[in-house]
Write a structure and sequence with these properties.
Layout: H1 5-16, E1 21-24, H2 26-32, E2 41-44, H3 48-54, E3 58-59, E4 67-70, H4 76-79, E5 80-85, E6 87-89, E7 101-103, H5 107-112, E8 122-123, E9 129-130, H6 135-141, E10 143-144, H7 150-156, H8 159-171, E11 174-175, H9 177-185, H10 195-206, H11 211-220, H12 229-232, H13 247-260, H14 265-273, H15 278-281, H16 295-309, H17 314-325, H18 338-348, H19 353-366, H20 375-388, H21 401-408, H22 414-429, H23 436-446, H24 451-476
Parallel strand pairs: 2-5, 10-11
Antiparallel strand pairs: 1-2, 1-8, 3-4, 4-5, 6-7, 8-9
Helix pairs in contact: 8-10, 8-11, 11-13, 13-14, 13-19, 14-17, 14-19, 16-17, 18-20, 20-24, 22-23, 22-24
Length: 483
């Protein structure tokens, strides 16, 4: 495993001073997994003052001895490298931060305080691995296991309960049996952790390729009850004949689809939450007569509370709420009009419509449907493109009817529309003519023509519209008068 030049340079600087220094933690784990580390950490037996003296370009704003060294690297993962002295930590009375930190002399003392064996591995400049707790073996076996006694590790920092699930999801690992048992036993410790910290770990789980597995682990370990208990309401809640899964299974399958498609966080959250209101909206007990009228409205309100509770940003909160609220939009090729599609665009927002269609895809797959994008959905995409596309109309001209009336000193009349259509026909042939100066000049010239001559421009415009419509239909693989 070859270390980047920036890390080699840091380790060499310590070595020349007769000091120890190692790459440590997640960056070493990622190297072993042939992954590109997202950040780099170094541990050393040098005190913070010595680290600062050796690397004047630094940031030092904490009580744990960590000095962030500015390397000047263009790689964002290497621009700031955190260097921390070996340390031993005191008790964690708040289940998050150590009450005291004492600098240590031995590397093993530092590694012994870390959360999981896969993060308690060090690497020196020569490529030698220091692994006193079997982290390399656990990486090979794809296991998440605590360093030392699991319950003690979680008692020190309750966020590690969630981090275990996060590593399992992001790395595709399994949680070792004793570690999982300690999680299940002590889930309530998560109450001591701030909502922001919980949100950040939850987001990393949802953004993982194995988000589906991560969510199942959260439910299995009962951690979900302390994050989004509303989701657990769907466990075992049967749906109707249109679904082969219960509400919980449907939500997890929808999330799985969006993760496989590598959709955005907002889409993944909305797919997970889109039917969250169903348990509270359910009427009827049998599989044949169950209804969930208004569940999208109930769900949107629930999601608003969830996003606020977990301190999500306003932008992503509003987006997810809208996607949940309008995911039940109705569309039938023969029944829905262009005006109703325009209303949908107004409600959900033009910027959200593509994501809304992704939610419908996830909803279909989560219901056991074989196709994510059937003909009906392709046709809807075509209509959306059609009504939101910059239309071939006088609206695209650099002048309007008021400009025509002002130039000709006339009031409204059919001739105004005919002149505008004639100008549009010219612009369609040559877009470069769409300037206020040229069009203003042409107004006076066209005013000299008869109404019959001006009417001919409408035929050219209609042909252009038909050609554009045909192109869009081919794009979405739809046909005229097809259902």
């Amino acid at each position: 495993m070859r270390l980047p030049s920036e890390i080699q340079s840091i380790l060499t600087t310590f070595q020349k001073e007769g000091l120890e220094a190692y790459a440590v933690g997640g960056c070493v784990r990622d190297l072993m997994l042939n992954k590109e580390p997202k950040d780099w950490d170094v541990t050393t037996n040098a005190p913070p003052e010595k680290i600062q003296a050796l690397f004047p370009e630094n940031v030092y704003e904490n009580t744990f001895g960590t000095v962030a060294i500015k390397t000047g690297s263009q790689d964002s993962a290497l621009a700031l490298v955190e260097v921390t002295p070996y340390r031993i930590e005191g008790k964690y009375t708040d289940k998050r931060h150590p009450d005291s930190v004492k600098f240590a002399d031995k590397l093993e003392d530092d590694l012994s305080r870390r959360d999981f064996t896969i993060n308690a591995i060090a690497l020196d400049i020569a490529g030698n691995i220091i692994d006193p707790f079997g982290g390399q073996r656990d990486i090979e076996k794809k296991i998440v296991r605590t360093v030392g006694e699991a319950e003690k590790r979680f008692d020190e920092d309750a966020l590690r309960l969630l981090r275990a699930v996060r590593f399992a999801a992001t790395l595709g690992f399994e949680i070792e049996a004793k570690t999982k048992k300690a999680i299940v036993k002590n889930t309530e410790w998560l109450r001591a952790i701030s909502k922001e910290r919980i949100r950040d770990e939850f987001v990393k789980i949802i953004e993982a390729d194995n988000a589906y597995t991560g969510l199942l682990l959260l439910e299995e370990t009962d951690l979900l009850r302390y994050i989004i208990p509303e989701l657990s309401e769907g466990v075992g809640v049967d749906q109707n004949l249109h679904h082969i899964y219960n509400v919980w299974e449907h939500a997890t399958q929808a999330l799985k689809y969006t993760a496989e498609k590598k959709y955005s966080l907002a889409v993944r959250l909305a797919a997970l939450f889109h039917d969250i209101g169903k348990p509270r909206a359910k009427r009827g007990e049998t599989h044949e007569n169950s209804t969930f009228y208004g569940h999208e409205v109930i769900g949107a309100r629930m999601v608003a509370e969830i996003m606020d509770r977990l301190k999500f940003s306003k932008d992503i909160s509003e987006k997810v709420i809208k996607l949940v609220r309008y995911h039940m939009f109705y569309y039938s090729v023969d029944e829905v009009t262009e005006s109703s599609v325009r209303r949908l665009l107004v409600n959900v927002g033009q910027e959200n419509v593509e994501d809304l269609l992704k939610i419908r895809e996830a909803d279909r797959i989560g219901s056991g449907r074989p196709k994510a994008i059937p003909y009906k959905l392709r046709h809807l995409k075509y209509i959306i493109d059609k009504v939101s596309h910059d239309p071939i109309s006088v609206k695209m001209l650099k002048i309007n009817g008021e400009d025509v009336m002002k130039e000709l000193a006339i009031t409204g009349s059919p001739k105004v529309g005919l002149i505008l259509n004639s100008l549009l026909a010219e612009v369609l042939d040559d877009p470069a003519k769409n300037t206020q100066e040229y069009l203003t000049q042409r107004i006076h010239e066209l005013n000299k023509l008869t109404a019959d001559d001006l009417q001919k421009a409408l035929d050219r415009i209609e042909k252009a519209r038909e050609a554009e419509d045909e192109e869009m239909m081919q794009k979405y693989h739809v046909q005229k008068d097809s259902d």
